[in-house]
Amino acid sequence: MLAHYSSPQDLINDPRMHDLLTVYIGETYRHHLGGKWFMDLENKKNAYYAMPILKDLRSRRAGSMTPLIDATASLNRRTGTYMSTIFRYKIELSKEDD
Q1: Of 73, 95, 96, 94, nearest in space to 84 by CA
Q2: Which of 18, 72, 88, 98 is 20 to 30 A from 82, alpha carbon to alpha carbon?
């Protein structure tokens, strides 16, 4: 992602790739942490209104995941490790719940 997009807006301007990355990130989380895809289309005041999220993860402490935001946040931070750091943290939380 960092090699192809110089900013989050560049990715947002490529909606097909943004959607594909969202699904890829989300399915990776779901494979390891469980959860269900959810989209709130009723509460327009919800910060995640009309945004795909993963909820009901195996670990209650892991909370919900927002793969759409993770993709753009990764580009904004430009570390190359942002998503893996978040992912490892959520995995550790799920292990502590076992």
Answers
A1: 73
A2: 98
The tokens describing 32, both together, are 């390891």
CA atoms within 13 A on the CB side of 62: 29
d(CA 42, CA 37): 16
Contact between 45 and 76 under an 8 Å Cβ cutoff? The reply is: no
pLDDT band of residue 31 (cuts 50, 70, 90) is very high
Instruction: Quote the pTM value.
Output: 0.83
Which 3 state secondary structure label does DSSP give 68?
Answer: helix
Which pairs from 46-52 meet CB under 8 Å and 24+ separation? 52/22, 52/26
Strands (E), the chain: 34-38, 53-57
Residue 57 CA to residue 31 CA, distance in Å, equals 10
Please tell me the distance from the alpha carbon of residue 97 to that of residue 67, in angstroms, as a whole number.
Answer: 22
